[in-house]
Amino acid sequence: MGCGGAEPPPKLAEPAREPPQKAVPLFAKTSQELGGVDPKAVKSAFSTLNDRFMDCQKRALDRVELVAGNVKFFLRISSDGSAKWAYLEDSEIGDRQTEKCLVDVVMGGRWPKPDAGDAEVRYAMELPLQAARPPADWSPDKIAGALDRNGEAIDKCKVGAGSTFRATMYVGPGGKVLSAGVAMSSKDGEENANCLAKALVKMKGLPSPGSWPAKVTFPL
Predict the structure, then answer these.
(1) Fewer CB in 10 Å around end: N or C, the chain?
(2) Rounded CA gap, 215 and 179, in Å?
(3) Could you tell me which residues come within 8 angstroms of residue 27 by beta carbon, excluding any fewer than 6 positions away?
């Protein structure tokens, strides 16, 4: 038998540091109807689109540096794994161009095949704020008077709609609308939402937030 004591235990390798994560999904939630689909597989499929989602936001920042917020997709997946249709049933992005870009990304994605027929899923995520300072947070009553005065244009956009709508917009110095986005409760409200966003951008008579823009979300 040798002497001199036992050898010291080998040093454990330090865990590798993970690179910074892109803060695209703040949270994710999936549900399905009709055919079944694995929520984890849906979440994984959405994560592969992160860079393209961020590209949608980057394009908007050249126009309005404050574009950011939560969105919730409603997606119908065909039996072959393609997107049948999609829309934003909730959005605080405040920019219709960005909202449409996000939906286009989803429509171009590949999705897990349902176990029978089509499947419907919901997925929520956030586009993080890139500006150093957030917009002022306005309550809907701040713009109630201006909405009433522009009610005719808004009502025209809602004619024939089988959907309810929720809008978000950024208001800059002097009460100028910098951009507006609209979420809808059904896929049939797409054209109405486009019309509403255009009407909101043209809206006059809003109060001024001062030197820094404000953000407001409200039902229509």
Answers:
(1) N
(2) 10
(3) 124, 125, 126
CA atoms within 13 A on the CB side of 151: 4
97-to-23, 34, 61, 210 alpha-carbon distances in Å:
21, 31, 11, 26
Which residues touch 96 (CB under 8 Å, ≥6 apart)? 179, 180, 181, 182, 193, 194, 197, 198
The last residue of one of the domains, among 97, 127, 157, is 127
Q: Which range marks the domain in which residue 49 is found?
A: 33-127
Closest CA to 105 of 24, 41, 194: 24
- CATH code, 151: 3.30.1150
> Of 127, 162, 195, which residue sits at a domain end?
127
pLDDT in tens, 168-212: 999 999 999 999 999 999 999 999 999 999 999 999 999 999 999
Output the pTM of the full model.
Answer: 0.83
